[in-house]
Amino acid sequence: MKTRVKAQTTAAGIALLLALSACGGAANSESADSKTSNTTDISEGVQPDEKAVSLLPASYKEKGELTVAMDLHYPPTTFLAEDNSTPIGLNPDVARLIAKKLDLKLKFVDTKFDTIIPGLDGGRFDFTATTMSKTEERLKVLDMIDYFRAGTSVAAAAGNPLKLTVETLCGKNIAVTQGSTGQLKRLPALSEQSCTSKGQPAINAVTLPNVQEALTQLHSKRIDGILYDTTALAWAAKQQPDSFTILGRVNVGSSDLTAVGLKKGSPLTPALQAALQSVLATPEYKESLEKWGLDSGAITDAKLN
Asked: 118 preceded by cis ω (within 30°)?
């Protein structure tokens, strides 16, 4: 599902897409040196964690590799560098650090977000680090280990011509992405809290395949707003100033902690939790957060479930 945007396109809607597409975005305004640093493996020189390695099942030691599923189209946490092949962002950094702590190689699999959990359940992937928050439904089928604090916000058209707030979206068309916590938890909870419980019309959820499509529809006024990850919206706003207006955070529906996910009861879980706890104490973890403008999301406890 890789999105490709031609550089010569000048239409405003496509320019907005460019801010979040895998082959555009932040690198367009960076120096050659910073482009190179974006593809540098942050785990270089990091040593394995003996405790974590000791907890690895023999089958993983023999294979020598972990497979991680990610939807590689969501900057600044998970996307592709300008070479269209190197995963960059916080999540690839964390996954590389986990693998290094376990003394294993790492294989990335670009996977549509709403197919990641079935893939984990079916054994196609060993784990995912894709800005996935904990929900009751996910915890029934996954082991989930905290690694970052993110959150969700609402964005409106540039200048907010409809004068919307997070609390006044009743009857409005608000985009969410397929399979996201926004679709499953946060928008329904916000609609109930702000609208239907007060006799107002529900918020109309418009489910779209990705945030690029949502931004295009917002620009063309086919929707009134977008409910999406705060980190990604803040990143897009930085890359394309005045393209849209962030109204504020949504603090209902689920936790703002995001977690690594594995199949429920996976024999890999104890080792991966130990590795992730070790990662959270490294300077590389904090370096990655700072690099992608996510300093406020740092946590210290790799809590399981």
From this structure: no
Q: Which domains does the chain have, with CATH numbers?
A: 47-150+257-297 (3.40.190.10), 152-250 (3.40.190.10)
pLDDT at 253: 66
User: CB neighbours of 36 closer than 8 A, spacing ≥ 6?
Assistant: none
Tokens of 111: 């996977």
Q: Is-contact 48 247, C-beta < 8 A?
A: no
To the nearest 10°, report the CA torsion of 143, 147, 149, 154: -60
In order of 11, 44, 89, 234, 298, the CA distances from 77 in angstroms are: 26, 19, 5, 11, 13
pLDDT digits (tens, 9 = 90+) for 127-174: 999 988 888 889 999 999 999 988 889 999 999 999 999 999 999 999
Residue carrying the six token digits 């990655």: 288
Strands, DSSP E only, in 24-100? Answer: 65-70, 79-80, 87-88
* Rounded distance between C-alpha atoms, residue 130 and residue 142, angstroms: 14
Taking the C-alpha atoms of 140, 289, 35 and 31 in order, what is their torsion angle to the nearest 10 degrees? 150
Stated pTM of the model: 0.73
CB 93 within 8 A of CB 37: no
How far apart are the C-alpha atoms of 8 and 27, rounded to whole Å? 16
pLDDT lower than 50: segments of the chain: 1-36
Could you give phi then psi for residue 20, rounded to 5 degrees?
Answer: -115, 0
